[in-house]
């Protein structure tokens, strides 16, 4: 994942910003709870991307991956809509409690950019994606970097069309969605009123996407490691913030680990999950890797 990549991550201030004031308002109405629905995963499960993860002789990568993680950010569905039987195979290969968080096809987000031709495509996408049944998590729609607020009417029409039985998260990348306060407020209220999650992206070169503004009781976080020693501290800072959000009422956490160069996402994930279990009292499986958990990626 090269989005937000910088040449010198050691120069970036990775401090997590203070929450937007609306986040507390959203969470305070949820009521504190001891139970959190927590899903942590990577973006892909193929051996080529996840180095030092699959034991020698692994025959089915998804089966093994799902024995170590409880979720996957399914990026493959961004590039094409698969045949129905493929979704059924994915569903049947994974254990009870596992969830897929698939990305909306780029035909909708990038090629047709939410124009009036996307609705038939979205319907076709949902028809097959729904075959994941109880293993379908939140679908997320990622817009192109140059999809700006001039397209506001398209966003409104798409949100109003979206079937509410399918949880949706939306990721906007054009900087004006965040830096223009009036536009940011309008977008936030549209998402909030329609129960759509406002995706947070933690990546080195786009700190403006750390708007820290939740629009519902779902923290959908896409974390991008910079292949730098700071990656660990950044994850620990997230644990601290998530513990705070839990006390405020957050009950749904969906956290996906990427790297600019996918080398050790499982190792980073293992460290994050271990810290999360200690802080939040969760009991997520800590993924086994072929490297010691305490080994630095950057030694």
TrEMBL record:
Pfam families: DUF72 (PF01904)
InterPro entries per UniProt: DUF72, UPF0759_sf
Protein name: Uncharacterized conserved protein YecE, DUF72 family
Species annotation: Flagellimonas flava
